[in-house]
Each structure stands twice: as C-alpha cells, then as structure tokens.
C-alpha cells in the first residue's frame, strides 16, 4: 500500500540522514545540509519566549510555516537530541500524514504509491527543510479541490501563506468552475502576503547583486567562468551563494521560467479537466515558478512530487533521475 511504502521511505530517509551527518563530521560531505533546523529552533524558541515575528523577530518564513517551527522548537526543548534529528523525525511523520491525505483523493491508490516513489530521492533533503510541511498543506488543498469541497479555498490560502507557490492551485479551482472561491482566495492571499511583506523585520529575500548560484542561469555563468579560469564572482549572503552578474541574468532566468509557465497556461486555456491534464498543468506552473525565480534551492524540486505522480512512466523516470543526481551533487557542492 501507499502508506506502507511511505513508512519504508521515511525509514530509509532517516537512515540516510544519520549516515550523511556522520560522514559530514569526518569531512566527507559538507555540513551545511543541517544548518536550517538549527535556525528553525532559534526562531521557534524566540517566539515561545514571547517575541513577535516580523516586528520583534527577523523572520524570512511566511506565517503558515511558523507553526511547525514553534511546535518542533517546543518539542526540542524537552529532548536531548541534535536539531536535525528532531526536525527530521517530525517531518517524517508529516510526510506520512501527507501520503494519508493524498490517498483520500478521487484517484486510484496506485498514484499514492507513485507519489511516494517520486518523492523518495529528495525526501532526505526535504525532511531537513520546510518543504515537507508545505507539500502537506498543498496536498490537503489539492484533494479538497478535486473533491469539490468548500474548504478548498481556505486550504489554498493557508498553503500559500506557507511558501507562496501553492497559489497555482487556483488554476485548478478555476477549471473546476469554482470562480468565486478562486477570486476570493486570490484576493485574500495577495492581501495577506502584502501585509507580511510590509512588516519591518520580514526578510522576503536576500540582498545581493546578481543571481543565486543554483539557478539555471547562475550555474551556467559559474560553470563558464570556471572553464575560462575567470574569477567566479561568488558572494555569500545568509548562508547562500550568489554569482555577481548584471540584471540581464535575472531577466533571462525569469524568461526561462515564463517559457515553462506558458506550457501550463496552454493546458489551462484548453480547459482540459481530466486528472492527467490538470496535474500536468500544475506541475508546469510550479516548475515555472521554481525555475523563474532569482533564488533556487535544491529542495524546491520536492514541490512538484504530488503532480509528477500522475505523469507518464518516462516522465517519472526522468524526474527521479534528475532528483537522484541533484541529491548526489548537493552533498558536495553548495
């Protein structure tokens, strides 16, 4: 069953995290993979101590993402274990809950199994970030839209306030003829995001000149400079690496994202409502947002796993291959 496969996947991921952490101590892998849970615990403890996010505490995470941060920080204060162990354990449980919710969708249980399989390569990395939580909220909204439930708009609003990109689900709602729900959810989401972004201590992005080194354009520029023996122009900001480049790099990267978005928009305009078509649309829209942004992190590819589950065997295989390669590369390269 899908749940049994998910349990095995989580156990494999936990084991992989422990092995990677142990090897990182001995310098085999870089240790930055486990830095985020430490920051989460610090932010969560500040909130528990009475600090107000965005006005008294500098936070770059959206409101819905603060819930797991606070809960896990509270739990962490009562146990004696490394941050990455505690955070990874909780996110493993969240992934199991995600699979259980996914299984409630109006589709065959074989797609639940496929979801677990395509998620497994990046699950260890995602379990040390917020991505598992965001996908959990997204899957809840996805199932509610597919079930034509009244709570779909609210669920999409909550998911959007966790990371932003789940707003692409409104395209599905529109095709489901839930026009008023889509309009209200879209308006509420943008209003809430603007309110958060306007707060003095909300860091919606990192200040840098150029483009993130892991984006398509950023990595191409970095590779070209290394081949030519030129200075790489790497700049470190908030624990991430950026490549110094002109505005053209950001525009070109955005253009690449728009090309992918156009593929999703094409399906949307064709008004195809079968599950395969709508999931392809959501996958392309999500990929477009992911690729087109000036900031890209490897764990972002976990976002599309619920949608890739409905793709063809060839497409799923290509995604898994890319995910495995990404996980292997990220162990050594920032």
Structural overview:
This protein has helices at 2-25, 35-48, 63-76, 83-102, 110-119, 123-126, 131-146, 152-163, 169-175, 179-197, 216-228, 247-269, 275-292, 305-308, 313-330; strands at 211-212, 234-237, 240-243. With 334 residues, the protein is mostly helical. 42% of the residues are buried. The mean pLDDT is 89. Strand 2 and strand 3 (240-243) form a beta hairpin.
Present the secondary structure layout.
Layout: H1 2-25, H2 35-48, H3 63-76, H4 83-102, H5 110-119, H6 123-126, H7 131-146, H8 152-163, H9 169-175, H10 179-197, E1 211-212, H11 216-228, E2 234-237, E3 240-243, H12 247-269, H13 275-292, H14 305-308, H15 313-330
Helix pairs in contact: 1-4, 1-5, 2-3, 3-8, 4-7, 7-8, 8-10, 9-10, 12-13
**Helix proportion range:** 55-70%
The run of helices and strands is HHHHHHHHHHEHEEHHHH
Structural class: mainly alpha
Q: Characterize the main sheet.
A: 3 strands, antiparallel
From the structure above, extract its key features.
mainly alpha; 3% strand; 15 helices; 334 residues; 65% helix
